[in-house]
From TrEMBL:
Domain of life: Bacteria
Name of the protein: Aspartyl/glutamyl-tRNA(Asn/Gln) amidotransferase subunit C
Catalysed reactions, as listed in the record: L-aspartyl-tRNA(Asn) + L-glutamine + ATP + H2O = L-asparaginyl-tRNA(Asn) + L-glutamate + ADP + phosphate + 2 H(+); L-glutamyl-tRNA(Gln) + L-glutamine + ATP + H2O = L-glutaminyl-tRNA(Gln) + L-glutamate + ADP + phosphate + H(+)
Pfam family, one: GatC
EC code(s) of this entry: 6.3.5.-
Enzyme class: ligase
KW Transferase (keyword) present: yes
Function: Allows the formation of correctly charged Asn-tRNA(Asn) or Gln-tRNA(Gln) through the transamidation of misacylated Asp-tRNA(Asn) or Glu-tRNA(Gln) in organisms which lack either or both of asparaginyl-tRNA or glutaminyl-tRNA synthetases. The reaction takes place in the presence of glutamine and ATP through an activated phospho-Asp-tRNA(Asn) or phospho-Glu-tRNA(Gln).
Length: 95
């Protein structure tokens, strides 16, 4: 699939990237090369292949999912510019 300069201009505008007119042909070629690579990847037969997240098989340590309050209220509120009665105090924004 070939990308023309008008499509490259439209993609750049959607991505909020300022591209000068003289750079559009090179950008269109890059987009075409990327799409060509994706088409090559689509040709690979992956039936029966399990998806993986890493090249090395490893199990991550998982802690028990226990609901608690964290017992860190004082430490969290120490970072607040204004805390009252155990809560963050913020200015009133609605009257």
């Amino acid at each position: 699939m070939a990308i023309d300069t008008d499509t490259a201009r439209r993609v750049a505008k959607l991505a909020r990237i300022k591209v000068e007119d003289e750079a559009l042909p090179a950008l269109a070629q890059e987009f075409s090369a990327i799409l060509g690579f994706i088409e090559q990847l689509n040709e690979v037969d992956v039936d029966g292949i399990d998806p993986m997240t890493s090249v090395t098989p490893q199990r991550l340590y998982r802690r028990d999912d226990v609901v608690n309050d964290g017992d860190q209220q004082a430490r969290v509120l120490a970072n607040a510019p204004d805390a009252r009665e155990g809560f963050f105090a913020v200015p009133k924004v609605v009257e």
